[in-house]
Design brief:
Radius of gyration of chain A: 16 Å
Largest sheet of chain A: 4 strands, antiparallel
Helix content of chain A: 10-25%
Shape of chain A: elongated
Oligomer: homohexamer
Strand content of chain A: 25-35%
Order of helices and strands of chain A: EEHHEE
Number of helices of chain A: 2
Number of strands of chain A: 4
Structural class of chain A: alpha+beta
Chain lengths: 132, 132, 132, 132, 132, 132
C-alpha cells in the first residue's frame, strides 16, 4: 500500500458545551496543523498516489470554510462540540466529497483509504481514518 | 476510526545483558518521549474519543513508576532487557489495566485499540499496538 | 553564556482591528507553543541556570492568565492587536515581574537575558528578547 | 504488534517526464528523510524487534545506491518517475531483499511487516507499506 | 528586540567542485527548508514586526528563482559552490533587496536585522545573519 | 555572520546531589540530542563555514567519551551535577580543544563563535555559547 501526505493548517475559535470540558467551556481557540494521508494499492501511470499539487489545493479549499473563523458560528457544525477528533471527521467527510467530485483528478478513483490528523499542540493530536 | 494521542516523557537509567547490545551493556540511560494513541469507532456524546485531561493524567500516573529511576532495579521488569520496544509493551499493559479500572471514565468502554510509541532519539523510536 | 529553555502552550481566541489583517479581523484563535529561554553567564552552585521545575511552574502560572480565554476580553491587552509578537512581549514582561518577585528562587538574580518565542503554526513563529 | 523505526536520509537529483509535474519536469532535487519501520508480533530472546545497529547499517547500505546521485542515471529506475512514493517502494523492495539475505540476522525471520516513509519537506511525505 | 519568522522550502539540484566535497562532487540535490527571521526594536502601529502575509509572499517570490532548478545553471551563482551556508547568504541578499524595494511595506523601514536559515536534513542546517 | 549546525546524540545515566533536584537525585538517565553551531564571518574558498563531514566526525568523537556511560563515573566531571547546561559547557570545551588541535582542518581558524545545545526532551533544552 502506497501513501502520500500533505500538510496545511487552520486557526479557529470555538467553545465547548459540557461540564466534561471544564475551563475549555469558555471561548478560546486553536491552531490545527492538518495532515491528510491518501492510500492507494498501486501507483498511477505517472508513478504517483495522486497529484500532490491537486491534493494541496483541495485541502486548502476544504479548510477555507473553517480557517480564521469561530466554529461556534458554523451552522453545519451545530449541536456538536468541535473537538479535535470531531473536526478531523468533518474534514475527512469534506475531502471525501471533493475526491468524489473529481477535484483530485480521474486518477483519484484508485484511492482506497484516507487519514486526517489534526495536531492541536506539541503534546496532543487526533484524527479520523476510513476507507474511501 | 477516530484516534486521540497524548504525549509525555520519562528519563530512565538501565543496562542490557546480552552481547547483542555491545557497548550498551554498560549502565546508561534514555529520555523516552511517550505517545499513547487511543482508537474508537464512534465519538461519545461529548464528541470525544475520551477526555484528554483524564488520558494525560492517567499516562502521567502510569509513567511515574518508571520516571527518574533505574529500570534495572524494578522487580516487575526483572529477567528482561528494558529495550524501547519492551518498555512500550509494558506501558501498554499498564495503560490497559488503568482503562479497565475505569481511570479514563465510563466512556472509555468504547475504546477498541491502543498504540504506545517511545521515541528514544531523533533517529529511533519503537512501540506496541494491540486491540483493547 | 549558558541558556535553559522550557516549553508550554496556550490555546486562545482573538480578533484583529486593522485592515492590514484582512480576513484575520474576524474572531478566530491560535495555539501558541511558548518557549522561554533564560540566559546566565555562569552556573549556580548546583550547576544550574535556574531550577527547571520552578521555571516550568512559573511559566505555567503566567500563561494561566491567557490560556483558554478570548484575548479580546483581557483589559490589560486593550488597545492592542494581540499578534504573536505582541503576546511574546506581554509574556516576557510578566515573566520578568515573576523573576523579580523571586518566583524562580534567589539564584535567579544571576539571570541576564530572556527570550520568549511563540510558535503559531508549523510555518510561523515570533518572539521578544531583552536583557533582564 | 511491536514496531521499531530507524531514520536516515539521502540527497538526490532527478527530473520528471510527464506534463502532470509542471515545473518539476526540470532537473531539480530533494532531501528524503527515510524512516523504516519493522513490525513483529513478539519480541526475540533479547527483547528486541531486531538489532537496531544492524537495522541502521542495512538501511544506510541500501540508501548508498541513491545517496548523492542523479536518479535519472540509475538504470534500475529507468522508465519511471522517481516520485517520493515510487522511491519508497524501491527502498522497501531493497530492504526486503536485504532482510531475506540475512542482513538483519536470523531473528529477522520473525518480522511480518515493513513501512518505508520518505519526507521530502516539512509539508509533504509519502511511503510504502506491506507484509514481509 | 522583537522577531518574526516565516518558513518555506525549495527543492534544488547541484554539484560541488572541490575535492573537499568527496562524493558530493557528483550531481545530487536537496530540499532546503528556509526560515527567514526579521528583527525590529519596537512593533508598528498594528502591533506587528511586519505583515506576515507580505513576508511570506516575498520569501516565496525570492525562492522562485531557485526552486525546482539546477543551481549549477544559475549564472548569478557561477564560480561558487552552492553550499547550504552560501545559499543562505544569497537568499539573505535577495530578501534585503526586496525589503529595500518596499516589498514588505513602508513599515519594514523599522527592521534592523535578518537571519536566514536553511535546513538540509534532520541533522544539518546553516544560515546567514546580519544587520539590515 | 554565517553559521553551520550538526546534530548527534548521546544516551547517558547520572544522578544529582542536591535537594534542589528532588526525585532526580536518584539514578536515572537521559537522551541528549546535541546540536553544535559554528559561526564564521566569511566563508572559506570552498564556500563553507567548515567541512561538515569533519564537524560531524569530531562531534561524534567528542561525544564518545560520554555516550552509553554513567556520568557519575567520569572523573573529569567529579564534583559537579551533570545537568543539561553543565554538559553543554563540557562539550563546548572539548569541541574547542578539538578545533584548536586542528581536527576541523586549517580553515577552522576562521571560526569565531560556537553554540552547543542539548535537548533533553520535547519540552526542555539548554546550552552554552561563547566566542572561540
Amino acid at each position: 500500500m502506497y501513501h502520500l501526505t500533505v500538510r496545511d493548517h487552520i486557526m479557529i475559535a470555538h467553545s465547548f458545551t459540557s461540564p466534561t470540558f471544564g475551563p475549555a467551556q469558555a471561548l478560546h481557540g486553536a491552531t490545527y496543523v492538518v495532515d491528510v494521508t491518501l492510500h492507494r494499492e498501486t501507483l498511477d501511470d505517472d508513478d504517483l498516489v495522486v497529484d500532490i499539487g491537486a491534493a494541496s489545493a483541495t485541502l486548502s479549499a476544504v479548510l477555507a470554510e473553517f480557517n480564521l473563523s469561530n466554529l461556534d458560528d458554523n451552522p453545519t457544525l451545530a449541536g456538536h462540540n468541535t473537538t479535535t477528533e470531531f473536526m478531523a471527521g468533518e474534514i475527512f467527510r469534506r475531502m471525501k466529497q471533493a475526491i468524489a467530485a473529481g477535484r483530485l483528478g480521474a486518477g483519484a478513483a484508485g484511492l482506497c483509504r484516507m487519514r486526517v490528523q489534526l495536531s492541536e499542540s506539541h503534546i496532543a493530536w487526533a484524527g479520523y481514518e476510513a476507507a474511501l
